[in-house]
Amino acid sequence: xxxxxxxxxxxxxxxxxxxxxxxxxxxxxxxxxxxxxxxxxxxxxxxxxxxxxxxxxxxxxxxxxxxxxxxxxxxxxxxxxxxxxxxxxxxxxxxxxxxxxxxxxxxxxxxxxxxxxxxxxxxxxxxxxxxxxxxxxxxxxxxxxxxxxxxxxxxxxxxxxxxxxxxxxxxxxxxxxxxxxxxxxxxxxxxxxxxxxxxxxxxxxxxxxxxxxxxxxxxxxxxxxxxxxx
Amino acid sequence: xxxxxxxxxxxxxxxxxxxxxxxxxxxxxxxxxxxxxxxxxxxxxxxxxxxxxxxxxxxxxxxxxxxxxxxxxxxxxxxxxxxxxxxxxxx
Lengths: 230, 91
Hints:
Order of helices and strands of chain A: HHHHHHHHH
Structural class of chain B: alpha+beta
Oligomer: heterodimer
Largest interface: A-B, 25 and 17 residues
CATH topology of chain A: Rhopdopsin 7-helix transmembrane proteins
Shape of chain B: globular
Structural class of chain A: mainly alpha
Distance between the termini of chain B: 24 Å
CATH superfamily of chain B: Winged helix-like DNA-binding domain superfamily/Winged helix DNA-binding domain
Number of strands of chain B: 3
Shape of chain A: globular
CATH class of chain A: Mainly Alpha
Strand content of chain B: 5-15%
Largest sheet of chain A: none
CATH architecture of chain B: Orthogonal Bundle
Strand order of the largest sheet of chain B: 1-3-2
Distance between the termini of chain A: 63 Å
Order of helices and strands of chain B: HEHHEEH
Number of strands of chain A: 0
Number of domains of chain A: 1
């Protein structure tokens, strides 16, 4: 029996694509549904929050596109010639956008403190993310951006812990910090799966499944909150 | 000690004062009721005009009246939702 088209045989890529697509849609919905609030208030916290999901959305769109490219490669030789440039460019955009998403997530909950010190120049963050993306690409080392994002994750843990200590007596600690931490941790793990080591398909599926559920929880929380209460 | 109002609260208060005066009020009573210094009040008023939350109209005795626009009403309507969103997400 002749082999079927390559994309029917490669379940792992299909799982990746579905995962990327669901997260992409969640991010797009969060970004779109918070637009009116930002337009009315120009509030910086909302802006940075939206930017988190804008950049996460870009990341997952590129990730989806990369897998699509891999899935539909009909002629491997042709693919090699055309797609190497696209792959490198996509890799660069993905690292840059995911680093920016992580930075904006942290900045959205920390911007008031930094603004006191008149430190509000987000261009520095863009520069840092571009440098990390370039270094990872030129040295062909995903470890560079994963280390950078792990440092950001550590920073988020510290901020969440400080916030927890400050607010635990008032009972107003936002459980969303935990959600952010899980999403961030799973993002790093999913990148380790993608770029560094090979997990079994079952482990990958569980991690992607949990990530999707967390993104959907976040999406539902946002949609509930932005719903017009009349 | 009275907590200092943030920018969103100040805007809400100003717009609410205008609405409570049947959507038209002169600048001087608005300044008085908004509990702001003249300088800060003028900054807020010019921002509200620029962003299209309020507009100035002339009344019969050629005085200036401030009224809400549709965007201003929308802000008042959505204020609590926006505030609760900011609190919930720690923004």
